[in-house]
Amino acid sequence: MKRLSLAALGMAGTLCAAALCTGAATAVPDPRGAPKLAPHTITEGRTSTVAPHSGVNVNVPCQSPEQSSGGGVRTTGNGVFITASWSSAGWEAEVYNETDTPQTVWAVSICTPQGHTRRSSIPTTQVPMGESGIARAACPAGTEVTGGGNIGGAQGNDRMYVSQSSDIGDEWTVRAFNASPFQQRIATQVVCSNTPHSSRSSNGTQLGVGVTGTSHAECPAGEVPTGGGGLGNPSVFFNESYPTPTGWTVRATNRGTQPLTVFARVNCTQP
Q1: How many Å separate Cα 115 from the centre of its chain?
Q2: Residue 57 in contact with residue 28, Cβ under 8 Å?
Q3: CATH code where residue 198 lies
Q4: Between the chain's N and C termini, which has fewer beta carbons within 10 Å?
Q5: What's the pLDDT score for residue 169?
Q6: pLDDT tens sequence across 215-248
Q7: Surface-to-core class of residue 78, CB atoms within 10 Å of its CB (0-12 exposed, 13-18 middle, 19+ buried)
């Protein structure tokens, strides 16, 4: 397991989608009246192999007493799709490999000593075979979204291909396509904090039919990522979704019948 310190770097000028921007939150003051801020560290887990036409679960722990503010998953293959990604003792993720060859996958967590609250969608959303579904989970009043995702099933074999996992206001929204031969469910999770956060969207990356591409969102200067994800058409399935020292990157594949666009989304805070 390797840990990469997040530098307080960033780039201005990224596009913030108006419908997705979050407002200011009320910070919990320390005895001197300043918000309680803390470092955030990217922690990458050990690599695992996912066999052809099967799924796998991967995870990476945070070192106690740290916990995850957000996280994601890396893969090496274009035919590997994210089916779940969520906060636990660190971060867990599940993928499904549609290719005929073994592929590599590993989880990524943003770990911090800062306290967080986790909420899940209740009830879960049932999704029939061959259809897309959406589920949302909201932060408690007075807190802001730091990250989120969807809680997985049986070792990634649920084949719920994620096409959106991002904040919208004080909520986290997940949309997924059910590629399995039976009904599945989406259980969305949101991670929340009472320290100030900002959110940014990337410019859209257009993907031709069958094309795989990436989109990246940068934090404002002086802020670091705490979580992130992406959004696009229900036929754009995520291959990877992961933090960088200054933002968030999503790699996705267009499985639709016309050119489609994918956007990355990042949640940021002062380190």
Answers
A1: 19
A2: no
A3: 2.60.120
A4: N
A5: 86
A6: 999 999 999 999 999 999 999 999 999 999 999 9
A7: middle
Query: The domain containing residue 171 runs over which residues?
Result: 2-11+41-269
pLDDT at 158: 75
pLDDT (tens digit per residue) in 75-123: 988 899 999 999 998 999 999 999 999 999 999 999 999 889 999 987 8
Q: How far is CA 3 from CA 46, 61, 118, 206, 267, in A?
A: 12, 11, 24, 33, 20
Question: Is 238 contained in some domain?
Answer: yes
Per the structure, the count of domains in the chain is 1
Confidence of residue 156 (pLDDT cuts 50, 70, 90): low
* 29 in any annotated domain: no
Cα dihedral 217, 189, 82, 42, rounded to 10, equals: 50
Enter the tokens of residue 203: 């410019």
φ, ψ at 163 (rounded to 5°)? -120, -10
